[in-house]
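Weekly modeling sync, notes
Attendees: S.R. (lead), two postdocs, one rotation student

Agenda item 3: backlog of single-chain predictions. S.R. asked that every request posted to the team notebook include the full sequence so nobody has to chase files. The rotation student volunteered to paste the first one in as an example of the format we agreed on. Action items at the bottom.

Example entry:
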Amino acid sequence: MAELIFLGTGTSQGVPVIGCGCAVCTSNDLRDQRTRSSVLVRTDGVSLLIDGGPDMRQQLLRERISKLDAVLLTHEHMDHISGLDDLRAFTFAQDPPKAVPIYGTAGTLEAVRRVFAYAFSGNGYPGMPKFDLYEIDKDPFMVKSVRIQPVEVMHMRMPVLGFRIGGLAYITDAKTIAPEERDKLRDCDVLVLNALRMEPHISHLNLDEALAVIEDLRPGRAYLTHISHYMGKHADVKLPPHVQLGFDGLRVEV
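Predicted structure, as returned to the notebook:
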């Protein structure tokens, strides 16, 4: 049994969008208030954070997350990595302090080194975050006892990693998924997939495209994430019975 916690389900601007007065951004439904996309997966006693964007601190506080074994990064865009400095809380909660393991592609890890250059400067300042970086590609890897299968999707021309962990698969920022990568996603109990809005988009699946992928893969259940205010109000979106919009704070057993 695994537990999936939706920390954030919004797109890069979040919802509400700054300065927007649309019906979604002014909604009183808490499900329409979306921080940047991220999830926590707990399985076999291991806690895995997938992505750490600018809302990571408030997400982890909201869900009372006190244990973290590793971070899996899908790609280097700022709405997925810019909160990583706050991982220092997990470093200094241990005696002696321990670096946080972070897994990502070569390009993603290079972006982490660039954005958080001070963490790799070697100047010994005691308050800096400590990261152990592990390069991954499309081959399976282990975090403690948990086997993780990366799944490559395309964010327009940019490769992005999704992850399959047992019966759970998590895909964000996808526009296309090659047939050989789709095969890694078949027979899932739970599939999490991005769906940006109703209208087509150049680098993200829209709702119809996401539903077509779900129809092809036929998971037991599917949840949509990385949702913008252009999707409409959570309560108004009509979906098949086995598909739901994710929302911040949603917990799912897998």
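Discussion: group reviewed the output briefly. The chain has one domain: 2-246.
Action items: rotation student to repeat for the remaining queue; S.R. to check formatting next week.
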